[in-house]
Amino acid sequence: YSTPPEEPITCTNGNSKCTITNSYGIFPDRTICRAGSAAYPTSEAELIATVADGTRRGLKMKATTQFSHSIPKLVCPGGEDGLLISTERLNKVLNIDTNAMTMTVESGVTLRDLISEAAKAKLALPYTPYWWGLTVGGMLGTGAHGSTLWGKGSAVHDYVIGLTIVSPGSEVDGFVKVRQLKEGDEELNAAKVTFKLEALFKRSISYVSKDDSNLGDEIGSFGRKHEFADITWYPAQQKVFYRVDDRVSSNTSGNGLYDFIPFRSSPSVVLALARLTVIGSQHKVQASGTCLDSLEDASITACAWDPNIKGEFFHQTTFSVALSSAKSFIQDVQELVKLKPKALCGIERYNGILMRYVTASTAYLGKDGDAIDFDITYYRSKDPLVPRLYEDILEEIEQLAMFKYGALPHWGKNRNIAFEGVLNKYKNGKEFLKVKKAYDPLGLFSSEWSDQVLGLKDGLSIVKKGCALEGLCRCTEDVHCAPSKDYFCRPGKIYSDAKDLKNLRSLLYSVAEHFELSYSSDDQTQMTSTQNKQAMSLLISSKMSPLLGLLISLLLISVAYSTPPEKPITCTNGNSKCTITNSIDIFPDRTICRAGFAAYPTSEAELIATVADGTRRGLKMKATTQLSHSIPKLVCPGGEDGLLISTERLYKVLNIDMNAMTMTVESGVMLRDLISEAAKAKLALPYTHYWWGLTVGGMLGTGAHGSTLWGKGSAVHDYVIGLTIVSPGSEVDGFVKVRQLKEGDEELNAAKVLEIDTHFYNTKLSLEFSTHL
């Protein structure tokens, strides 16, 4: 068990004078995100009223989630008078149709609840992210995914068959528009939340270790051979762990639980790791996140990245490289390792490079072809002007991917430079902008950050002293690096177009073989030599005696309670004067995201009202999730008078149709709940992200995925067959538009990754049966 995460929204005066952060406690630009107020709708009616009021007042609005897990400033409405609309209380499962195999949920339903409620009906969402703490809205809003090349793919949004969208409307509309999208509606590709599910099934998971000499040759065939495959690569050791993960007969013995190591309730002082082979039902193995919501224990234990315990502080660079180019990219990385063998030792403290499969999607901001997703987590200094050891190598890898191979960045992670020219990489990018304009003509759900990312405004690259150290710019001058510490701007080692930070001083660190250290000896986040020895002792003992290491791990896990993540939105005056952050408590540019208000609708009506009110007031709005897990500033509405619309309370499973194998949930439903609720109906979403803490909205909004080359692929959005989108409307519309998109609607492809610019109420996903072998 663990101490639960704190609320991302903090207000100093009721629900006004708020701030919002992410689950890490900091945005990439290290700024504070403020908002004038926060709203917590508990129903559709309250949400509609909140949007209508925000529109009427012209407020910038952003939807927020329970844990605010995105790294970028997605939840920041901009300015200091915006409105945060939390989906924390929109956490109900509205309907499960076991015949149709569908499940309708509110957008604040977490992945954990989505999974568990589906499982009660013997249904499953086959592919999901790995983290329970995501909400439905968060998953859809960031394109969250698991890993597969099979079926519809691993993106959660591709299993949505219906969606209710609440958006600003005109005065004639009552300042709010409510759209009901269903499968077949073109707009559903822009949004997506009724899920199409499957019957619940079992999986077998085991790992095979090899050297990485044939990784480039095997990467494509391995993903097509194993449905839920993923790969963990340790390039410094030249080792690869292949996850052999496939369906097995429901009669196969085993009722195991796969609890992904980084998402466990972990002791704050030491994290003992062990890998296990597991056979178990889909809802018990597809995602995890036991550090999310356990008992309070004075922070003795917590999620590893919890900022309240000065936990892991890191960057995440995550991108998808076309499968056809993956071998060449891997060979380039291997060439860099040959040049500097110790340079990537540091990432092995953070579980190496996780590689997940994603398939082509019809979503306007989905993948154009089959791809492999590289997820790299690495040390970040508390001091933005302190360079990292071997920083030049990781910078060159990032620029190789983004600019040589045209990689697509994950919408919920990454630093600013990863988003340079990103919309031009999507063949349907212009179509997405058309739908965005139709849904939010006043731009109330847009923020300065999201407009910069979409190429609508300049300023994505923040050029200043030391900006290249944090990925805020590509260096063109030495001052962008750290010349006083002998880090200069020079061409890359194997990619001449890359602009790297070269350390011209010859330095040797004996401990660098095992621990990545900051350049500066006075960095407060560095381990002491005693801590180094203790950690090394644990690693050595685990390697020399696997049984002992496993016993230590099991003993620690059996007694550990974890501090839950803090809420990303903080308001100083009720639900006004707010800030929002992400789950690591810092954005890439280290700025604070402020908003004028936060709203927490609990129903579709409340969401519609919230969007209408925000549109009427001319507020910039952003939807936020419960844990705010995206690294970029996706949640930041811009300015300080925007509106944060949290999906934390839009967490209901609205319907599970066992016959149709669909599941409709609210956008704040977490992946953990999505999986578990589907499993109750003996259904499953086959491919998902690995983290329970993502919400449906968050996964769809960032393109979250699992890992597979099978079926529709691993992107969650490709299992979306219906979506209700609420967006700003004209005065004639009452300042809000509500669209119902369904499979077949052209707009559904644009809506699959839309969370950054509008808000949806529920999603319909397609699931699978357990007898499907």
Q: Could you give a quick summary of the protein structure above?
A:
The chain has 773 residues and is an alpha/beta fold. The protein has 15 helices and 40 strands. Strands 5, 6, 11, 12, 13, 33, 34, 38, 39 and 40 form a ten-stranded mixed beta sheet that branches. Strands 1, 2, 4, 27, 28, 29, 30 and 32 form an eight-stranded mixed beta sheet that branches.
Describe this structure as you would to a colleague.
It catalyses: L-gulono-1,4-lactone + O2 = L-ascorbate + H2O2 + H(+). Pathway: Cofactor biosynthesis; L-ascorbate biosynthesis. One of its GO terms (molecular function) is FAD binding. There is one protein chain. Strands 5, 6, 11, 12, 13, 33, 34, 38, 39 and 40 form a ten-stranded mixed β-sheet that branches. A hairpin with a 7-residue loop joins strand 38 and strand 39. The chain is of the alpha/beta class. The chain is globular, with a radius of gyration of 23 Å. 73% of the residues are buried. The chain has a domain of 202 residues. It is built from 15 helices and 40 strands. About 10% of the residues have low confidence.
How much is the radius of gyration in Å?
23 Å
Number of helices: 15
- Specify the structural class: alpha/beta
Low-confidence stretches: 263-275, 504-561, 754-758
Mean pLDDT: 82
**Helical content, roughly?**
10-25%
Q: In one word, what is the shape?
A: globular
Beta strands, count: 40
Largest sheet at a glance? 10 strands, mixed
Distance between the termini: 34 Å
Content of β-strand: 25-35%
